[in-house]
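Hi V.,

Quick status before I head out on leave. The structure for the redesign project is tokenized and pasted below; the design run finished overnight.
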């Protein structure tokens, strides 16, 4: 994973013990703290190599991810995608990914507070995530839909991401911390892969939700307009018939008046 290479190279530039202590005081689960410490110690001698290999690969991954998102939204909305700019699209994809990871880290910091405070943090982090994904959705193919039609998918992405992350933090991570070192390593990798799979499913579901709701609402609006037209048509027909009858009667009366006696 290119992002992990870059993070590992950056961690290797610092002091492994200091990094592990700082992360531990941030409320991050113990299994993650141990993994970060191991990465920092293993990368001390190879940090520059990791950065040299990770940064170009990360840029390519961001560009590939952007193209995948464009194609997916294009298929859902039946809207041809625009050609992305490699560097800008890659940086945007990496920035959005970093923002979601930052939201997850913020949730980790408040893991030991009361349930009421956790709910507040949950709601507060949903708002910026939904705003970020709404901005992303506006840059992706979305047919003729307005930003209001894209709002349900943005809220869904933010809520589903935080719910999935909460399941990992509050239910999976504590069990990994009490497991042996072997099962902790395997469990951490498996949990990360599963979480990435769930996030992928969330991102695929969001445009489908938006498109379905948009088409349903547009279909109902069209049906309502047709019903209105059908309701107004008899009245218009009757008015037209009455007008024609009146004109005919007036013409007949004028003819009779003007005829010789």
């Amino acid at each position: 994973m290119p992002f992990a290479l870059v993070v590992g190279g950056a961690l290797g530039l610092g002091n492994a013990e200091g990094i592990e202590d700082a992360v531990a005081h941030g409320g991050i689960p113990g299994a993650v703290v141990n993994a970060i410490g191991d990465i920092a110690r293993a990368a001390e001698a190879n940090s520059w190599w990791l950065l040299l290999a990770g940064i170009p690969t990360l840029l390519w991954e961001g560009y590939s991810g952007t193209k995948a998102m464009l194609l997916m939204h294009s298929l859902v909305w039946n809207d041809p995608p625009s050609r992305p700019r490699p560097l800008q699209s890659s940086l945007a994809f990496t920035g959005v990914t970093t923002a979601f990871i930052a939201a997850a880290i913020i949730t980790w910091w408040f893991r030991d507070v009361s349930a009421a405070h956790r709910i507040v943090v949950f709601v507060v982090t949903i708002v910026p995530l939904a705003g970020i994904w709404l901005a992303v959705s506006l840059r992706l193919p979305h047919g003729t839909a307005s930003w209001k039609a894209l709002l349900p998918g943005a809220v869904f992405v933010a809520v589903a991401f935080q719910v999935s992350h909460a399941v990992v933090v509050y239910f999976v991570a504590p069990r990994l911390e009490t497991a042996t070192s072997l099962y902790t390593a395997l469990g951490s990798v498996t949990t990360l892969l599963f979480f990435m799979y769930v996030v992928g499913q969330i991102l695929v579901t969001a445009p489908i939700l938006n498109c379905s709701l948009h088409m349903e609402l547009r279909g109902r609006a069209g049906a309502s307009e047709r019903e209105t037209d059908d309701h107004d048509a008899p009245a218009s027909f009757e008015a037209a018939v009455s007008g024609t009858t009146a004109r005919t009667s007036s013409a007949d009366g004028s003819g009779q008046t003007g005829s010789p006696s």
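Above is the designed sequence. The helical segments are 2-12, 16-24, 30-42, 47-77, 86-109, 115-139, 147-177, 181-258.

G. will cover questions while I'm gone.

Best,
W.
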